[in-house]
């Protein structure tokens, strides 16, 4: 297996993270490779606030455990709701998700440009629930507004990435997200659960264990 390294001579990385389960294995791989990187947590889509705080604090705790710099940015939910207005009933992986990715990645690229980072990427692509092409399109779009920032389209699912993500999540007993994160994905997941005679999602209840299958879809 080739050693993980940043592309095109870049020296540091600003890594947008959505949660600990999706970022855990990626963070360990980057650290093991000796790559200089910082976690950037900006996810105003996550609803409700209780869910947001659980995801953020768990990601922060894991970063501190491994001495990884962690940037906690604004929870500007009003701007997020304004951005996705009119797209409330878009399906998962639809136009609402693209707008959400655009917002988060633009803010990541902006922070990178203002703070001496030349490369950004995101942990979102490791989830099998996400469309990798859709994520990369938003990432490349975000950096196009800046002359000094590139987006790394690395496929984090490669080399057992998805499997190792679950392994790390179980070892750390991370909180298991049962919906993508936004109020509309929570609504749609509960509609599906109702049709299947399953109980509604309870925030802050379920955590990874070695008896669980993957349910993380941040």
Overall description:
By secondary structure, the protein is α/β, with parallel strands linked by helices. The chain has a single domain, classed as 3-Layer(aba) Sandwich (Rossmann fold), CATH 3.40.50.620. 43% of the residues lie in helices and 9% in strands. The chain has a 5-stranded parallel β-sheet, with helices on both faces. The longest helix is centred in the middle third of the chain and has 20 residues, at 95-114. It is globular and about 55 Å long. The mean pLDDT is 94.
Which range best describes the helical content: under 10%, 10-25%, 25-40%, 40-55%, 55-70% or over 70%?
40-55%
CATH fold-type name = Rossmann fold
**Which regions contain 5 or more consecutive residues with pLDDT less than 50?**
none
- The percent range for strand residues is 5-15%
Q: Provide the structure class.
A: alpha/beta
Summed up, the domain count is: 1
- Termini separation: 28 Å
Give the second-level CATH assignment, the architecture. Answer: 3-Layer(aba) Sandwich
CATH superfamily: HUPs
From the spread of the alpha carbons, the general shape counts as globular
> CATH class, anyone?
Alpha Beta
In quaternary terms, these chains amount to single chain
| Mean pLDDT reading | 94
State the helix count.
Answer: 7
Give the helices and strands as they follow along the chain.
Answer: EHEHEHHEHEHH
């Amino acid at each position: 297996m080739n050693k993980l390294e940043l592309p095109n001579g870049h020296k540091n990385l600003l890594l947008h993270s959505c949660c600990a389960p999706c970022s855990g294995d990626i963070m360990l791989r980057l650290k093991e490779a000796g790559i200089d990187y910082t976690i950037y947590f900006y996810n105003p889509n996550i609803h409700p606030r209780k869910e947001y705080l659980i995801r953020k604090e768990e990601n922060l705790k894991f970063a501190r455990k491994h001495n990884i710099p962690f940037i906690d940015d604004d929870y500007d939910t009003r701007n997020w709701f304004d951005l996705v207005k009119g797209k409330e009933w878009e399906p998962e992986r639809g136009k609402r998700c693209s707008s959400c990715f655009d917002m988060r990645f633009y803010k990541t690229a902006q922070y990178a440009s203002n703070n001496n980072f030349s490369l950004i990427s995101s942990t979102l692509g490791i989830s099998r629930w996400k469309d990798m092409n859709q994520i990369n399109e938003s990432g490349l779009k975000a950096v196009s507004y800046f002359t000094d920032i590139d987006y790394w389209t690395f496929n984090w699912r490669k080399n057992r990435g998805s499997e190792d993500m679950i392994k790390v999540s179980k070892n750390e007993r991370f909180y298991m997200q049962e919906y993508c994160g936004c109020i509309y994905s929570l609504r749609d997941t509960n509609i599906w659960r109702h049709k299947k005679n399953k109980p509604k999602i309870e925030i802050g209840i379920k955590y990874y264990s070695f008896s669980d299958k993957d349910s993380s879809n941040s």
